[in-house]
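Q: Joint fold for the lines below.
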Amino acid sequence: MKKEVGSKLANSVRQAKSKQPKDVVPVTSAAKATPSAPADVVIEAQAASPALSSRRVWPD
Amino acid sequence: MLAQVFSVANQKGGTGKTTLSMNLAAGLAKQGRTLIIDADPQGSAGQWAGLSPDERPFPVSVISIASNLPREIKRMREDYQYLVVDCPPTLETGVAQSAMTVSDKVLIPILPSPVDLWASVRLAEAIEQVKIYNDELQPYIMVNQLEPRNAMSRGMRQALDEFDIPALDSCMRRRAVYRSSALEGSSVYCMGKRGDPAKQEIDALIEEILKS
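A: Joint structure:
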């Protein structure tokens, strides 16, 4: 039973890998262009989120 | 000496990122100065610590960083021995990837389910791309909510062999005490005897990742 389920799971992972589009994961163009400074790209992405205001510290 | 940085990431929600982050940090805090960085806009880590009573605060401070995560992490490395970054459950914003660019290790909690396994294929791809910028990043899969008698759980090891990312021997079993500790704003280290088995799991996990 264990082997059967394990094999099925393993097969399903293999299938998922084979169907995985190679460019689906976003790596920002700026990060590609400037490997030494990927941080700048992220600043913009994070600052754009209305859910994130400023730094919150716990405990005070 | 600069802090070791552990990111906890998975783009799928509900895999136990915050549970792992909080308990990992609580365990690491016994060995050195530790800080939790809440990089998830949901703010679950902050909420967790916020539930702790004044007389028994969560043993590790939690800060939420809204911008320039890599720069802030690099800066904080000088003041701590361990930094634990609780990443958001998405790859779309680039926040998880940016955390990984300045991390030593990324821990990927996965539930023993096919859907979680499939979702992790995408994360593995993302990690490969991050390694272009941080070739020393060590990713590890950790099975969460393991149920040893469950066939799916028992089949996980074989399925995880399909990944290029190594799976840790240590795992977190499905235990109510993990959820209880969240409700009490605590960690399994402060849950008395009922927390002992979970405590042992986290201790074993810490030993394994510090050795690796």
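Q: Anything notable?
A: The CA atoms of residues 101 and 133 of chain B lie 6 Å apart. The mean pLDDT of chain B is 96.
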